Here is the input.
Amino acid sequence: MMLCALFFFAPAAPAGQGVQRLLYSPPNFSFVETPSGETIAAVNDTSGSVATVQNSIASIRSTNSTIVIVIRLTNAVYVVSSASLTLGSYECLVASGATIQAASASVTVPLVQISSGATNVSVSGGTFDGGGANIQAIYAPAAGRVNIDQVTAKNCGQDCILLKGQGNSTYDNEMTVTRCECFGSPAHAGISIQNSTQTAVLDNFCHQGSIGIYLSCAWANVANNVCNSNSTGIDIAGGDDDVVVNNTCNNNATGILAAGSGNMVISDALAGNTTAGITSSGSGTTFADNLFATNNAVNFSSGGSGNHVIAYKGPLSAPGQDYFYPPLISDQHTNTIVNGLGRTDLTISSTTIDNIQNQYNAALAAHPANVIVLHLNGTFTVVTNALMLQSNTCVLLSGTIQINSSTGAGQAITNGVSPHNISVSGGVIDGTNLTGNGAICFNSSSMVQVDAMTLQNFGPDNPRVGSSDILRITGGATPQIVTRCLMTNGAARGIWLENSGIKRVVSDCESTAVNEDGVDCDASTSGSIVKFCYLHDLVRYGVFFEQSASHNVALGDVCNNCGRDINIYNNSTTPRGDTAFNNALCNSLMGNNGLRNGSTGTNIVQSSHNFLFNNTVVNADIESQLYGTNNYYSQNFLTGGALSTAGVEMFFNSTDVSSNMFVQDGRSFLPVVARDAATSNNTPVVIAPTSGLGNDLWALVPTDSGYCRLTNKKSQSVMAVQGASMTAGAPVIQYTFGSAKNDQWLPESAGNGLYYFVNRLSGLCLDVSNGTNGAKLDQQIYNGGANQQFHLTFVLATNPPPFFSNVNLSGTNLVCKGAGGTDGGNYLLLVSTNLASPAGAWKAVATNSFDGSGNFVFTNGQNASSPQQFYRLQLP
Here is the structure.
């Protein structure tokens, strides 16, 4: 028998599936709830006494029941024994530098409890240590509009953070958990969301627990989280219509467990999970664009009923489900495409679309029980009719389809009657600058994917010309998916989605130089996701949720220099349902109007209950217009523009921890500093022990498009590549912020709770030249090394010990693997038959070395007649 912990972190790809760039940006609004005339009461406490803090809150609350109270705890340890620190409505706890901990493992109350029925409550910063007690660190039994940010919650017998709302069909819950690290909950979850709607769980790191993130709620948005080394990474245990996208779940037993109904599990990355990457047991859930590494025990374990499974870069076993594995231009496989059907591959070279149609129709007639795969290689001309696709058809375009100037076709590709299982991937569709045509129009289709296409030249972007929409999808059934496409130059919309009851995904697409919208969710479109798209230089809107559109999500999009970047609007001229329950989360917006929410000039159509959270709006405005109610704005960042209000909106800009934080080297664990606390330009940026002088703290201040400047607290200068060099190895210095873009950085998740920084000018990464005190920072090609990954923290992290990641019995040999050691360093392998023996009594049986990445492996023989043995590593 052995003693080991399975803690292992693996980096995700820098783009595509899994975690993406850091979504959350510290907001900069100075007001909490009211743009003008607001009074804030402050509690600044260093006592270390929970009772003292509670009395201070009660004293203020006794004279004013609605005033906002900001409670700051600084550099003290607060011990909870018999009473929680309790927060009510309009109260913001800022615990940066403080620790709240259980007095002992016998404590029975949460460390922090949010009162039942409370609203507009926040907890930011601080360490919350349950000490193994059977409690939660932060608990809300029935609350709304609660923000939890940058909290470390650990060692809890119950869920580390448990937020319950007012019910799965009650709106205006809109709770958020961002940038938190939760671990050490062996029987429960790091983060648990229950009985709630429109919750956002973003940028968190949950590890070493029974469950990383637990959901029993509706319409939650769970994105950009890392859930590693748990029994289950993300558990969608119940509820419905949750959005679980771009998470990284590695080295759990099960990466994602999906029960409930109608959920969207999209673009997640899963590796090293010992039971399954994804296990499905619910109904009506869509699984698409998920990336499975080869080292999951099973990639997909299929259960439940009526689920929609679209495989990506590898077949999945999904018997009894709605299964589709379309060949894509980046994955031209030969596997089964639809369960129970064979496949017929037909290769056609340059010709007319009419000729393709004839050959395709013949293949359909000859092989009615097969999926037809059309390989189109060359240049193809639309002369008379569009290519009409029927069910069970996949098109791989290696070349160009171009529209003839005399064509009567309305588009290049369309569909027959209500087709199921169709895909088009690769190549170019060129409208040859004609107007009145589109590239693709799918009507009443289902299980459809359009992937990696360039759709271009459907007229100039001015003036607007009807029927020139580049990609239109209307009617049909869930799911309908558009991935990795470019739409450019058009006289109408880039992507036009229409009609309710159909869940769609638009992911990693670019749309530019079109007259109307990059992505238009029109005519009651509902439950659709527009994520990580680049929508820029558009005459009208970047993302448009309009005309009774509901429950749609715009997440992590970059919308620059559009007429309006994100527009949530009910523009009907006749009575219709509200444009409602839509979410605009962590989008980066620049130029003209950043965010608008409202309706036409009549109160018979409204926009209500929309959630606009932590969008970065640069050189643009935020406009809340008539008519509607309870449009909720929280934690947005605005610079270079104005905020206008009409009284139909609610604000909660919860007081955040300071934006100044340590940027801590992932190899040496030393913080990044301006050398010698100098304030002059050209001062080298190095790693060194914390100074307390402010030269060791940096603020991530948004610029645009997800980039930020790293501003030194002491000097107010920024990290920059010296001389705007494009060369690997060029030094990083502090310098006055300028316009060369060598001083802007994109924080990207490394998939393990750390971040790496990509320089905007060079595309190279922030790098620590070596692990010694005083080592300079430079820029290098990203290689995934710990010296290019950084903790972003308010409390310096300590270097964790090496850990066991995998243990196998091979014959009579026990093979143990692990990571986290010093690159090339030595370790001793110790063994004992008594776990309680002091370390000095354990026997050293081997001296080994970590490899160049800090990994280790050892093999030890086992004897069935020997007593149980425990193993540990000892460092010199």
